[in-house]
Amino acid sequence: MKDEQFSELLDSVREAGKIMRGELQPSRVFKFPEPDVKAIREEIGFSQSTFAALIGVSLRTLQNWEQGHRRPTGPAKVLLRLVQSDPKSVIQNLHSHHLPPS
Questions:
Q1: What is the rounded CA–CA span in Å between residue 4 and residue 20?
Q2: Over the stretch 30-51, which tens digit does the pLDDT of each residue have?
Q3: pLDDT score at 13
């Protein structure tokens, strides 16, 4: 790594530390709405157990999301967004051979 690149990286790390400590505001913030898990599941007409199996989470996890006790994060959030935007494709490509016939 060249000295200039290392210096830029070090500056970025220092800036991130200041942001984390609340000493500096981030230059931009990305906010994504929380997925409404129950509405997504109901829109495609799946039971809780079938939907949980489709997206690879436990039934209890799905229930916690739907009741607002917990929120999906990371890959689960992305997967829910995909299901919401194109349920037919996602269902076709995810565990379709494991789902009971409709």
A1: 24
A2: 887 889 999 999 999 999 999 9
A3: 94
Provide the domain limits for residue 93. Answer: 37-98
DSSP letters spanning 16-78:
HHHHHTTSS--S-----PPP-HHHHHHHHT--HHHHHHHHT--HHHHHHHHTTSS---HHHHH
Same domain, yes or no, for 52 and 75? yes
Rounded CA separation 23/48 (Å): 44
pTM above 0.85, yes or no: no
CA 86 to the chain's CA centroid: 15
Task: Categorise residue 74: left if φ over 0, alpha if ψ from -120 to 50, beta otherwise.
Answer: left
Q: Which residues of 8-32 are buried (b: 16+ CB within 10 A; e: fewer)?
A: eeeeeeeeeeeeeeeeeeeeeeeee
pLDDT in tens, 21-35: 999 999 888 887 889
On whether both 11 and 56 belong to a single domain, the answer is: no
